[in-house]
Amino acid sequence: MEILSNLTSTFPNFLLAGIPGLESAHTWISIPFGCLYAIALSGNSMILFVIITHQSLHEPMYYFLSMLSATDLGLTVSTMSTTLAILWFNAREISLDSCIIQMFFLHGFTVMESGVLVAMAFDRYVAICDPLRYTTILTNSRVIQMGTLMIIRSVVLIAPLLLLLKPLYFCRANILSLSYCYYLDVIKLACSDTRANSICGLIGLILTTGVDTPCIVLSYILIIRSVLSMASPKEQHKVFSTCMSHIGAVAIFYIPMMSLSLVHRYGQSAPKVVHSMMANIYLLLPPVLNPIIYSVKTKQIRKAILSLLLATKQR
């Protein structure tokens, strides 16, 4: 009866998965995972620190970069605890309420990061296509408004989606396929009607990826058109090089996210280890690579980090 009550519950406990088929090697797998989490936390914290402490970086472009680092930190922290707990202690059980809280931060920071990438594309568009009005368009108050709008959009889109999970009835063995709670993974285990959840999820997808991706693409179409009208190839190369960091950030965010969604919806026949690896790549790739990309490609950030490291060494 106790087993039956666990399988047929409105408020169940879920079992998270580690790396399927490699359970015996979890301790060894935790070493590269721990290193990647450390790189993500230290890299994004350093970007935030240098932007806050260096007056020369108090410009819209770097404000948006600090928002990107903050969302990457949020994404890292939101899943790090459950992933490392499984790899180190095999602590797989999680309640529905804890699952909902984790999904709120995970999906909320994902929506926020998508919004930040749109804001950064707009920043590049104004800087290249309308440079004389850059300071009047992207004022500090406008940047704050854009940041606030990103937070409000995340909460408004994610909160109803997760609250709709509460009335659902779960009557299957509640074993998730990932090391953290992912909305599509949880919803598959429900036995009651999930049409409202599907509609709400579709609306959320349209209002995030369906809006943000075309906005980024449109920004770059206008940027390319403006750059190609420049006479000097040297000028063209210089302007394009200022966009490379952002293009890299967009690629490492959207490609894994779309790949994971496709695997979850259409890749049922794929090995479980593929699902698990895709899920971890989706979450770890942007927070790990974004600080590296911006440190290497952005001269001002690179100089600020080097001056900080040299000052620390001299002490």
Automatic annotation (TrEMBL):
<keyword id="KW-1003">Cell membrane</keyword>
<keyword id="KW-0297">G-protein coupled receptor</keyword>
<feature type="domain" description="G-protein coupled receptors family 1 profile">
    <location>
        <begin position="43"/>
        <end position="294"/>
    </location>
</feature>
<comment type="function">
    <text>Putative odorant or sperm cell receptor.</text>
</comment>
<dbReference type="GO" id="GO:0004984">
    <property type="term" value="F:olfactory receptor activity"/>
</dbReference>
<dbReference type="InterPro" id="IPR017452">
    <property type="entry name" value="GPCR_Rhodpsn_7TM"/>
</dbReference>
<keyword id="KW-0472">Membrane</keyword>
<dbReference type="InterPro" id="IPR050402">
    <property type="entry name" value="OR51/52/56-like"/>
</dbReference>
<dbReference type="Pfam" id="PF13853">
    <property type="entry name" value="7tm_4"/>
</dbReference>
<dbReference type="InterPro" id="IPR000276">
    <property type="entry name" value="GPCR_Rhodpsn"/>
</dbReference>
<keyword id="KW-0807">Transducer</keyword>
<keyword id="KW-0812">Transmembrane</keyword>
<feature type="transmembrane region" description="Helical">
    <location>
        <begin position="29"/>
        <end position="52"/>
    </location>
</feature>
<dbReference type="GO" id="GO:0004930">
    <property type="term" value="F:G protein-coupled receptor activity"/>
</dbReference>
<dbReference type="GO" id="GO:0005886">
    <property type="term" value="C:plasma membrane"/>
</dbReference>
<comment type="similarity">
    <text>Belongs to the G-protein coupled receptor 1 family.</text>
</comment>
<dbReference type="GO" id="GO:0071396">
    <property type="term" value="P:cellular response to lipid"/>
</dbReference>
<feature type="transmembrane region" description="Helical">
    <location>
        <begin position="202"/>
        <end position="227"/>
    </location>
</feature>
<feature type="transmembrane region" description="Helical">
    <location>
        <begin position="277"/>
        <end position="296"/>
    </location>
</feature>
<protein>
    <recommendedName>
        <fullName>Olfactory receptor</fullName>
    </recommendedName>
</protein>
<feature type="transmembrane region" description="Helical">
    <location>
        <begin position="143"/>
        <end position="165"/>
    </location>
</feature>
<keyword id="KW-0552">Olfaction</keyword>
<keyword id="KW-0675">Receptor</keyword>
<feature type="transmembrane region" description="Helical">
    <location>
        <begin position="64"/>
        <end position="88"/>
    </location>
</feature>
<feature type="transmembrane region" description="Helical">
    <location>
        <begin position="239"/>
        <end position="257"/>
    </location>
</feature>
<keyword id="KW-1133">Transmembrane helix</keyword>
<dbReference type="InterPro" id="IPR000725">
    <property type="entry name" value="Olfact_rcpt"/>
</dbReference>
<keyword id="KW-0716">Sensory transduction</keyword>
<feature type="transmembrane region" description="Helical">
    <location>
        <begin position="100"/>
        <end position="122"/>
    </location>
</feature>
